[in-house]
Amino acid sequence: MASRVMVRMAPALKGRRSPLTLTQAAVQRLKELQTNSAPEEQSKTLKIGIQGKGCSGNAYTLSWVAEPKKFDEKVTQDGVTVLIDSKALLTLIGTEMDWFEGKLASQFIFNNPNIKGACGCGESFLV
Q1: Is residue 83 within 8 Å of residue 22, measured between CB atoms?
Q2: What Å distances lie between residue 40 and 34, 55, 57, 68, CA to CA?
Q3: What pLDDT does 10 receive?
Q4: Distance between CA atoms of 4 and 13, rounded to whole angstroms?
Q5: CB neighbour class for 50 (10 Å; exposed up to 12, middle 13-18, buried from 19)
Q6: Residue 23's Cα: distance from chain center in Å?
Q7: With 70 as the cut, is the pLDDT of residue 24 above it?
Q8: Rounded to an integer, what is the distance from CA 8 to the centroid of its chain?
């Protein structure tokens, strides 16, 4: 007795989207920061994380690191590489990182679709 095997075509695999996108202003600012830093600091990479603090519970952290940790996510766009802390990855999926420069403040801004609420000053958020 012959056995029958069914074969189905798998859907075409789609390219994996980056968990974080950078605006051109953010890319330009990160390039400036690396170019203007001391020679021994130029090999470091910006790492984005999330820390529990503020009135809404969470705040972004930015730090320069020499080596990524084992599960850090690496995002490369337009010649700039940024690391995402593994603990912050799910919170940051779909986020756009922008650079804002005004008369009173200059800062990175995160446009995060996962945020459910934020404090009045905009420093902390709730997911």
Answers
A1: no
A2: 10, 37, 35, 17
A3: 47
A4: 27
A5: buried
A6: 12
A7: yes
A8: 37
Q: Convert the pLDDT of each residue in 66-75 to its tens digit.
A: 888 889 989 9
Instruction: Give the tens place of pLDDT for each residue, 80-95.
Output: 999 999 888 888 888 8
pTM equals 0.77
DSSP 3-state percent helix, strand, coil across the chain (nearest 5): 15, 35, 50
Alpha-carbon distance 84 to 99, whole Å? 17
Structure tokens at 26: 């953010």
pLDDT value of residue 82:
92
- Closest by CA position to 23, among listed 101, 88, 85: 101
Side-chain-side CA neighbours of residue 80 (13 Å): 22
